[in-house]
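Appendix B. One record, verbatim.
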Amino acid sequence: MALVGELRFLSGPRKGQTVRCTGPTVTIGRSKQADVVVDDPFASRLHVRIVRSGEGYVVENASSNPTKLNGKRVDRAELTDGDTLQVGRKCRLKFRLVEQVGAVISHVSGGMERTGGGALDGNDEYVEAPEGPQTAAAGRERPFYRNPKVIAALAVYFVLLAAVAVWLFYAPEAASPPTATPMRSEQEVLEKLVPELTRSENPIKARETLLQAQTLASTASQEPRNLWAAFYRYKEAEAYGEVLSTRDKLTCDQLQRDLAKRIWSLYINALAHMQTRRYRDAVRVFNRILRLLDYPPPEPSDAVIERSEVYDNVRAHLHRLVYLMRRR
């Protein structure tokens, strides 16, 4: 049975692969036109030739770069079974003479049979090795952009990008932020504290409400929340038709001024927090103002009294703050 030359890659990207020399000449080099392509920058485009000579093979250096046989530089030498051939700096090949069994599997232009990662067994029979990551390589490392994991990651990325684009296209426009016009002075707060009243003549309730207002006013200095409760009761008494005395009018006006002064101090503090984007502190201060203006007066009460403009202004500021905090 005829012997045929076989080359097995010992290093480089094709480590583990074997090829058979079935033609009269096999070329090895870096060029794609070579029968055996090696990935080594120090190898020439057509570096070496393996020529059939009778029953054996001869190696010929075909370039100005060195070719080493068993560690020694050669220009032309006879190959024997077990020789090691070095092409360039990194690529080393093992030469073997094996029996050619069966039909040739495949050929390339120079007459070389590719057999994958095969080897000789104990009986000198050629055994085909299972294909693995190294034997499946085609002589060159696969570019990173052809890696299946990279392709899958890019596919997921573009799908998510498309989903976001569709959502932005079809999503309803975000609601515009609530508007809140800042109050400019303590005098403006004073004027906006007075609620609009719906008058309802009732002398009995007017008298009862006036007595409650006088009682609350006497404790307003110890309990700040009674400022609004007393002021509210005085205005409610007027809604019932009570004509306030000069003393009661002075007391009501003083309650209004004290309340406006306290609210203005808290209000400018809250606006300062908004300017520095300390939204949580601003919310805390605005809520203190609302607690001053939301203290329920004693019952019963059936007079219709609307909220003051100060209360509505602070509530608008709070709504805007909630909107800004959600967008952070």
